[in-house]
Amino acid sequence: MKIFHPIFLFILLASFATSCSDDFIDVENKETLTEESFWQTEEHAIQALTATYAALQSASGSKWAFFEEMYIAMAYRGDDIVNNSSEIYGRSLANFTNTTDESAPFNVWQASYAGIGRANQVIERVPGMDALSNETRNAIVGEAKFLRALYYFWLVTGFENVPLVTKFETNPDFLFPSQATPAQVWSQIETDLREAETIMQDSHGPSWKGRATKWSAKALLGKAYLFQEKWTEAASKFKEVVDSGKFDLLPNYDDNFNGRGENGVESIFEIQFTGDRSNGNDERHPFNFEVSPYTFGGWELFYPSEWLVEEMKTDLGADGNPSERVYQSIFFDDPQSDMYSLYGGDNVPYADVAGELNHPKYFKKYAYNVDENYYTGTNIVLIRYADVLLMYAEALNEIGKTTEAIDEINKVRVRGKAVPLASLTKDELRTQIRHHERPVELAMEYGIRWFDLYRWSRGNTAPESIKATLEAHGKPFAGNFVEPKHQLFPIPLQEMNINQNLKQNPGW
Amino acid sequence: MYQKITKHLPLCFAWMLLGLLLSPALGSTPDKIISGVVSDASGMPLIGVNVSVENSAIGTITEVDGSYRLSVPDNANVLEFSYVGFLTQRVEINGRTTINVTLQSNNLLLDEVVVIGYGRQKKSDLTGAVSSVNVGEIQKLPTADITTALQGQVAGVNVTSATGAPGRPPVVRIRGLGTIGSNEPLYVIDGIPGDIAYVNPSDIESLNVLRDASAATIYGSRASNGVVIVTTKRGKTGEPRVTLNSFIGTHSLTNNVEMANKAQYNQIMKEARANGGDDPLEFTLDDSQYADTNWPDAFMKDAFEQKYDLGISGGADAVKYHFSGGFYDHSGTVINTGFQRYNARLNLDFSLLNNRLTISPGIGYARTNSKNIFEPTGEGNASFSPFLYTYSALPHKEVYDSNSPNGFAVPPNILGSGNPVGERSLEKDQNENDYLQLGISTDLKIYDGLSYQFQFGANVGNNYNFYHLPAYFFGPQALVEDPFISENRSRLNQWTMNNLLNYQKDFGDHSLGLMAGISREKSQFRSTGGVNRKLPSSSLESLSSGIGDEASFGFNSTNTLQSYFGRLSYNFGNRYFVQGSIRRDGSSRFGSDNRYGNFYSVSLGWAIHNENFFNVDAISELKPRFSYGTLGNQNIGDHLFLARIASGGAQLNYPFGDAARQAIMVGALSTTLPTPNIKWEETATTNIGLDLGLWEDKWMLTFDYFIANTTDMLVSVPVPASSGITTFPLTNGGEMENKGWEFSTTYRNRGGKLDFDIIANLSGSKNKVTKLGFADESFTDGYIEFENFPTTRTEVGGEIGRFYLYQTDGIFKSQAEIDAHGIQPNAQPGDFKFVDTNGDGTLSDDDKVFFGSGLPKFEYGLTLNAYYKHFDFSIFLQGTQGNNMYNGMKMWLYRTDRIENVSADLVNAWSPSNPDSDIPRNVSTDPNSNIRPSDYFLEDASYLRLRNLQIGFTLPEATSKTIGISSARIYAGAYNLLTITGYSGFDPGIGNSGLLSRGVDRGFYPLTKSFVFGLNLGF
Fold first, then answer.
1. The domain containing residue B824 runs over which residues?
2. pTM for this one?
C-alpha cells in the first residue's frame, strides 16, 4: 500500500496544526478598557469625573435605588413627611422599627463610598496626566474634592462614625478600615472644600452645566460650618456666595421643581437627570410617580405631614390666603389648590378630584412630566440659593445679627409671595427658622429636613430633642423613637458582616 | 527553564506521533474469516450479539439465526462476544475459523465497557468512582432533556429543577457543593465538551458520570465538579433497522396554594386595616361589587406534550450508519409559554485499511424554539416572580374586556394597576436557537496494542432572542407607552482537537495500558443586539421600523485551553489494579505567571474475589478501591487578571448641559479591584469505595466515601463598600471541605416467570467553608424582596447558604405576655413572639440563628422493574431528606400591608375570638414586623415523589410480524403523579438555581403532573 495514503496525509496535517506554542493561550483582550489603556487623554479624565458625579444617583445608578433607598433614607424620618403606610418602602425606617440590615441607609453608605472611591481615583491619577492643561487638571481635581466632601458630608451626618478613606486602595490588607472620629471626617471635609474652592472653575460652559463650581464648594463649606456651629465662618462663606452676585431667586418658586429653572440662577448644586434615552441610557427618576395621587396616575408613596400642612397654612400672602410657595408645594383642600395630573398633563383643581383622592394632601414638587418621557428627567436640587439665604440668616442670627438675618429671610419670603417678617428676637427668629421658614420653603427637598433636626439636636446651641419635636409635630410612631439610637443610621449590617473592624452605633 | 521546555513540548510530541504513525503503516497483515453461531444456555440462537476482535473496532452482530461472519486480521488473538443481559465472553481464536459460543445469562454487567475520559475501560478494571447510567432505564422517562431524567438515578448526582418552566435546564450538582464559585459539571459529548441540553435523550448510547479525582483528573481543568461523559448511538453491521418511538402527554399544574376570594379578601383586609388603624379600603366595603376572578386559573393552562423519534441504523463492514431525527413539543402550562426542539443526528463509521483505521464522523443539529417567561432564579437581589404577581392580583379585577382594544380589562383606578394575564399575553419573548455539533474521530491501530486517535469537534451555537411589547395600558404602574422591540443574536464557536496515543498490552499476568495526549480548545462568543424604544405601530416587529431612541450592544470574548495529559493503568492477574493520571492545563483566563495548572491522581483497587484464597461462594465480587487526586476549576470570565476599567451604563453615566434634556456623558473608571494574581481553583479528593457482588452478581452493591478539599476557591469576594468598589472582585478567596457518601445497589432476578430488578441509590454530602474572602467576611443572600429580607448567610465554619433567621416562639395571646417578654414594644396580642437568642434584652439582627440549608442531608432513588410475559411494569420513586425551604411565596401572601391579594389561610388568622391560631393577626401596618424572615416561613422540604409509573405491553413477535413490524411496545404512564411532603408551597423539588440562595422559594414555575401514552416500534 501507499505510504502517503490521503488519510494519513490528513492526520499528518491535523497533528501539525496542534504543534504550536503558548501563543495559543495568549488571548487578546478586545472587550474592556484597562488601567493601562485608560488615564491617557483629557476625555478619560472627564469620564472618570463623570463617574464620580454618577454616584450622586446611587451606587448602581438605578432610579429605584435613588428614590426607594437613598431619598427614603434621607427624608422619611423627618416631621415634614408621612409615608403611605400601605407601601413597604422605608416603612420600618419611618416607624423607627428598622433593624441594622435596612437597605435604605446601606444605599446611602454604598453610594457615598462609591463616590469617594471614584473621587480618590481622580485625585490620585489626574494630577499625573500630562495630556491635560494645568487649568483642566485643577478643575477636575477640584470637583473631585468637592464631591468627596459632599459624600463625606452625607456619611458623617447620617452615620457619624465612619471610616475615613482618602486613597483608592487595591491591597486587600488595607480594605478593612476602622472608623474615624466625626471630628476627623469634618476636618477632611473642610480641607477638601477649602482646596476645591480655590482651584475650581467659576462657572461652566453650556454643555457642562451641572458640574460643581467654586460657588458650590463655598456653599457646601458654609453648610459644613453650620453643622459644626461655626457660625462666624459659616456666615462669611455664605456671604461670599451672596455677594458674588452670581445667584438669585427664581421669580417663580415652582420653577425649581418643574424643570424650567434647571441649573439656573437659583441653582448652587443639583443632581442631574435627563429624559434622554439615546444609546440605551436611562438617567431618569420616578419622583413624578412617587408624589402624585393614584387618581393622577401616581403611586403616592409619601405625603406632607399634618403638621407641615397646618404650618404652611400660616404662611400667608398679602391677600390673607396661603402664600404662593405653599400652593406650589402642596395639593390640599383649598379652593385655590390644584395639581399637575400625569394623565392629562394639566393642572386639576382640588375640588374636582376631592372625592377620588386616597389621602387628603400631597406634595407637588417634581410631579411634572417635563421630558414627556414617563419617568422624569428633572434635576433634583441639593443646594439652592434660597437654602443658602436661609442658612446665612441662621448663622447671622446666631452671631447676634438678627436684623440682617430677617432681611435675608424676607428675600426668600417675598419671592414666595409671603408677607415679610416683622422684627423678632433672636430666640423667636431661631424658632421661626427652624420650624417655619426652613420646613415651609424646603419641604421634602433632598437631604434637608431630617438633617436639620439632627444638627439642632446634636449641637450646643439651643438643642432640641428630635423625639420631642417629632412628638410635638405628630409624627406617627414617634413613640418608638429612642435617643440617641435613632439620631443616627445604624452602621449597615451588610457592611458589618464584611468588615469586622467596625463598631455599631450606640443603641443599635 | 521549565517554561522553555514546556513551550517546545507540543511540537516534539506531534512529531513523535507522526513517526509512530508512519512506521507501522508500512506493513499490514492479511485477514481471515471466522464464523459461528451464538446461542444462550438453552440453545436458543441469540440475535444481535456483538462479536468483535478484542481491543479493536472490528466487529459485527449476529443474525436472526444467531450466526455471524467476521473478517479478522491474522494477528488477532481474541474475540469478544457481548450481549445485553449476558456475560461478555472472551474466546481465544487459536487459529480456528469456526467458533460457536454459548453465552451465560447474567444480570451483572461486570464486563461492561465503560467510557471514561479519552478512552474506555472494562467496568471490572475501574478503580475510581464512575457511575454508569442505565440509559435504557432513563429513556423510559418522558422528559425532553437527559439531565432532568438523571434525577434520582445516580448516587451522588443531585438534579434539581431551578423552575418547572418547559425547556429550562435543571441544576446538576455532582457530589454536593465543592465551591462557592461555579459548581457546573463538565459535559463531554462524543469526546468533545459541549452543551448537553441540545442532545436528544433518545440519541444517547451511554452516559457515565466521573465523580472522583482518579476518574476525572484526565479532564483536569474543568473536572472538579464532576464530568458527565455521553456517547451517542452509532450504527452496527446489518440490515437497516428502523425504530420509531413516540409519546404524547398532558400536563397540568398542581395548584395547591389557595388564594382568598373576593369576600375573603374583603373580610381579611377590613380586619387588617382596622387593626392597623387605617381606614378600610373603599373597594372592600361591598362584597357585591366588582368581579371575583381566580387569577391563577386564568394564568395557567393544561399543556400538551409530544415527542417523536425516528432512528435508522445499520451498515456493512466498511461503513456503518446511524441516523436519527426527533421532534419534541411542550405547549407550556402558563399562557404564552412553550418549548419545541428539533433534532437530527448522523453518525458514520468507516473501516479502512483492513479495519486498522476507523474514521467516525458525526453531525448533530438541534433547533429549539421557546416562548420564555422570566423568573427570578439565582443569587443576589430578588426581583419579581410572575407567579407571585399573578397570585397576588386582586380578585376584584376583571381579566377580559371585550371592549378594550387588546381584549384585556383595564382595572379601575381604585383597584390599582396591572392585569397579569394581559401583560403576559401581550409580551413576546422568544428564542430560536440553533446548535450544531460536528465531530470526527479517527482511530489507527499502529502496532501490537499501540493505537493513535485524533479527534476534532466543533460546536456552533447561534442564539436569537426576539422581544416585543405592544403599547398597552393597565394603569400607571403597568403601561407601555410606546411599542418596544429588542433583538439579540449571539454566536458561540467552540472547537476541540485531541491527539491521543494508546497502548494496551497483556504480558502474562501483567496488563498494561498507557495513554498520552495533547488537546487544544478554543471558545469564542460574539453577540449583537439592538433595541428601539418606539415603533410607530404595535403591529410592526422590525428594528428598522423604529422611530424612537435606539441602542445597540454586543460582546466579544474568547478563551483557550491547551493541555497535555497521560494515564497509566496496570493490573496484575486481574487482582491488583493501579492507575495514575496527570494533566497539565494552560488557560487563557489566567495571567502569564499562573497560566498553567498541574493535576494528578493515583488510584488502587484490589479484586479480592479473584484471589485464590478467597472462596466464599455467596460473594462473587469484593473489590475495595482507593483514589486520591487533584482537580481544577477555571469556570470564570475572561481577562480577570487585567486591571479593568468599567465604562458606561446607568451606574457610571451622568448627564450635563443646559438643556432640559441634557446630553448623557459616558463615565468610566475602576469599579472593582484588580486581581492580577488570579489562578486555578484546586480540589483534592480522596475516595474510598467498595464494590460487592452477591450470588453470582445477582445482587450488586457499591459504596463510596469521599472527602474533597477545595483551595483558592474562585468566588466574588465581598469587600467593604468603604473601599469604593461596587463590584466584588472575582478571585481566589476561600477554602472549603466537602464530605459525602454514596451507596447504590441493584438486584436482578431473571429466568423465572416474573423477572424483576430493584435498583436503589442513596447519597449525601455535607460541606463546610473553612476560609472565606480576604478576612473571613460572610456572604449574605437569599433576598425575598428587592434589597431586603435576606434569608441566608454563608460564613466560615458552616455550610454554604445556611438559612439565617429570627426564631419565633408562637404568638402573643395577651398584653401581659408581651410585657413579660419585654423586648417587643410594638407588639400586640396576635403578633409573633421572637426569641432573644443572645439574651441581651433587645431584639436585633444578632438574634438571628442558623437553620440548616436547602441542601438535603441525603437523597435517594428507587426503581422497580418487573417483566411478566408480554407485560412490563416500572415504578420510580425519588426523594430528598433534610433539606429546608424558605417559603418566600407564603411570606408574600401572608402580608396584609399592601393592596394585593393574600392567602386564603388568613381567614383563620389570630384574633381575640380565634386565639389558638398559629397565623399572626391581620394588621396592615405590621408594627411588629411579623413578616421579617423567621423560622415561621421555613419549612422542611423533604419529599418522596412517585416520579414515574409505567405499564408496557410488547406485542408477541408472531403478531407484530404479521403487520410487518419486528417489535412493538405500547405503554402508558404517569409522571410526577404523587408527592408526599410537608412543604406547603408549590413544589419542594424546585430549588432555585442560586448557590447561596438554594432553597429560597420566590414563587417559581411549579412542576407539573403528566399522563403519557407512548409507542416503541421497530421495523
1. 808-847
2. 0.85
